[in-house]
């Protein structure tokens, strides 16, 4: 059942912050955003005093009885984060990678972990925990890799739907002998049949794809034989599905692709010649692509998921995001658990900025650096475009849906007050900061303790003890 439990017309009153372009953030101190019963933004008003709410109601016919959720103090509303690439099944391995790099990391940590999700109770435990964890970090949409197992993949879709997190959920296809015998599809037919089964199931629980959608998921070129890639691409076309895979993450991986697909001009060419590069394709990593490969991806309108924490943790490399943005590629951020060590997109905003600075240190070109505004854009509107939801989410515009987080920043007591210091979360605001400074303090030192409430399509899907607003009829 799609998560459209009844919600009341609500006016969210208080500061809001969102991207208006790649380089610009709007910070409105006195906002009032009207969200209707379908979770759609009906109006966005600016410069509204607390006393002016009655005027807002009377200016907007039909809003007289709307409930009001007021944000006081140093907080602000911010769009929900979009994680364009993560592996829910690897959640228990978060933070574990040692000194491995991609190919030995897969064999050492990843395949054994993923194979354990043949047990549905194990999958239940891992997926419940991960969806809850990502929601608590303000992630309202996720593109998920599950595992090869149909029951566990379907369960992940059930959990996202129940908890109200938007998700693209992919059963992983992998039939080559790169993977151990105990964890791979037995044949191309199995890959197609099981992927089809999962697509059918996900469409049966959410026929309009309002919250969950299937995504065809060939793990990466070395995991699939050529006939498997062709069959899976045909399935994606026939079912008009999104596609996700990995590309050009690690130099050893690229050499392996060349060895396995000797007739292909490049890694990108492998996917292109198997018709896997479509406007609905998400390509994770894209660290070492050549200019020609990037041009092909751009021409096919496929999208890029930048996974900076993962690229550093398993020492894959520094993706040239400034170059790719300049070339016109569509880019979002991905946590890539558990190559990535943190389930938070806010953490990956920081990591994207750090990686771009390391690149700038190497090249001596300051233009390589991403600004805070740019990284926040990738986390919201950029990510929305990557998962095909740019009309629905990513910013606070009329007719977009209310996918939002309430950010609360702690206040440091006035001088001379009690000795007992109580910290409300990791960010201390002294009262003299400008609004851009407050936002920056959140970006660089905030975490999930600052995310005190989260909504998807107007439904409250996460809250902490600091949230004092009305609770939804839906269970949290
Ligand atoms: O970061 C990654 N995580 C994975 O699970 C994976 N599989 C193939 N390539 C991969 N890269
Ligand atoms: Zn990945």
TrEMBL record:
Q: Fetch the SUPFAM superfamilies from UniProt.
A: Metallo-dependent hydrolases
Taxonomically, the superkingdom here is: Eukaryota
Pfam families named in the record: Amidohydro_1
Write out the catalysed reaction.
guanine + H2O + H(+) = xanthine + NH4(+)
A molecular function GO annotation: guanine deaminase activity
Q: Which residues form the Amidohydrolase-related domain?
A: 78-461
Question: GO biological process: what's one of them?
Answer: guanine catabolic process
Keywords, ordered alphabetically: Hydrolase, Metal-binding, Zinc
Task: Name its co-factor(s).
Answer: Zn(2+)
Q: What is its EC number?
A: 3.5.4.3
Q: Give the CC-aspect GO terms.
A: cytosol
Its biological purpose: Catalyzes the hydrolytic deamination of guanine, producing xanthine and ammonia.
Family membership noted in the UniProt record: Belongs to the metallo-dependent hydrolases superfamily. ATZ/TRZ family.
The protein, known as: Guanine deaminase
* Biological source species: Cucurbitaria berberidis CBS 394.84
């Amino acid at each position: 059942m799609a998560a459209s439990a009844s919600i009341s017309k609500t006016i969210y009153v208080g500061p809001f912050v969102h991207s208006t372009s790649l380089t610009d953030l709007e910070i409105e101190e006195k906002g009032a955003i009207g969200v209707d019963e379908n979770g759609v933004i009906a109006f966005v008003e600016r410069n509204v005093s607390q006393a002016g709410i009655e005027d807002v109601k009377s200016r907007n016919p039909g809003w007289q009885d709307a409930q009001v959720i007021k944000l006081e103090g140093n907080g602000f509303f911010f769009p929900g984060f979009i994680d364009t690439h993560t592996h829910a099944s690897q959640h228990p391995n978060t933070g574990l990678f040692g000194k491995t790099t991609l190919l030995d990391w897969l064999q050492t940590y990843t395949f054994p972990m993923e194979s354990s999700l043949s047990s549905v109770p194990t999958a239940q435990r891992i997926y419940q925990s991960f969806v809850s964890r990502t929601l608590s970090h303000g992630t309202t949409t996720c593109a998920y890799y599950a595992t090869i197992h149909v029951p566990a993949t379907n369960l992940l879709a059930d959990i996202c739907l129940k908890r109200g997190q938007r998700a693209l959920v992919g059963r992983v296809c992998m039939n080559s002998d790169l993977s151990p015998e105990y964890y791979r599809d037995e044949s191309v037919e199995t890959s197609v049949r099981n992927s089809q089964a999962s697509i059918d199931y996900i469409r049966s629980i959410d026929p309009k794809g309002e919250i969950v959608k299937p995504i065809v998921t060939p793990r990466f070129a070395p995991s699939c034989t050529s006939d498997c890639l062709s069959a899976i691409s045909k399935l994606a076309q026939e079912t008009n599905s999104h596609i996700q895979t990995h590309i050009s993450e690690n130099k050893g991986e690229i050499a392996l692709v060349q060895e396995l697909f000797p007739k292909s001009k490049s890694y990108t060419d492998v996917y292109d010649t198997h018709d896997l590069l479509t406007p609905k394709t998400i390509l994770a990593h894209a660290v070492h692509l050549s200019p020609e490969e990037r041009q092909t991806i751009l021409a096919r309108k496929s999208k890029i998921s930048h996974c900076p924490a993962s690229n550093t943790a398993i020492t894959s490399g520094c993706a040239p995001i400034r170059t790719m943005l300049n070339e016109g590629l569509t880019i979002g951020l991905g946590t890539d658990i558990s190559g990535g060590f943190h389930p938070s997109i806010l953490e990956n905003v920081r990591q994207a900025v750090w990686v771009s600075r390391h690149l700038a240190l190497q090249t001596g070109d300051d233009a390589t650096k991403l600004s805070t505004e740019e990284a926040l854009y990738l986390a919201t509107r950029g990510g929305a475009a990557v998962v095909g939801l740019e009309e629905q989410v990513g910013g606070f515009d009329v007719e977009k849906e209310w996918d939002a987080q309430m950010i609360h920043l702690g206040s440091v007591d006035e001088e001379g007050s009690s000795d007992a210091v109580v910290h409300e979360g990791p960010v201390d605001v002294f009262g003299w900061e400008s609004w851009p400074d407050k936002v920056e303090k959140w970006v660089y030192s905030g975490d999930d303790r600052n995310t005190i409430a989260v909504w998807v399509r107007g439904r409250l899907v996460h809250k902490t003890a600091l949230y004092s607003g009305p609770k939804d009829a839906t269970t949290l």
